[in-house]
Amino acid sequence: MEKLNGMSWSSVLVLCGLLPLIAQAGREMPKLSNKKLCADAECSHPILIARALQDYYPQDCRFIPLRQGQLVYVYAMLKDYGNLFWAGSVQGSYYGEHEARLGHFPSSVVEETHALMPAEVEVKTDKWDFYCY
């Protein structure tokens, strides 16, 4: 493996905390829930807009990082374990040239700011809900 100032690239990735993220890329992760509540059967319409109460730094690729004050469009509320996690997207200059990031986050790190549609449709989750790229 090529060296950088006497260190291998894998050593650099470990020091930067990136090796676990790269190792997880492209695989199915454990389900956080078997069901989710959405506005429609495809979970394609946002249920609500929320604002991040604090910075959130996820531990694996199923989750999205949030910055305090950032707006989050919520598309689904995971149902099985007391509504602990929501699924949504964030946009903005924080992600540079990326249009949006999709993923899960704890519902406790956001507050609802605008209700958009009722979350009345129960949908089963599948492996693609928790797949890491």
Automatic annotation (TrEMBL):
Which protein is depicted?
SH3 domain-containing protein
The signal peptide annotation in the UniProt record is 1-25
Pfam families in the cross-refs: SH3_2
For the SH3 domain, which residue ranges apply?
45-115
* Species annotation: Alosa alosa (allis shad)
Q: Does the keyword Amino-acid biosynthesis apply?
A: no
Biological process according to GO:
extracellular matrix organization
The organism sits in which domain of life? Eukaryota
The alphabetized UniProt keywords are: SH3 domain, Signal
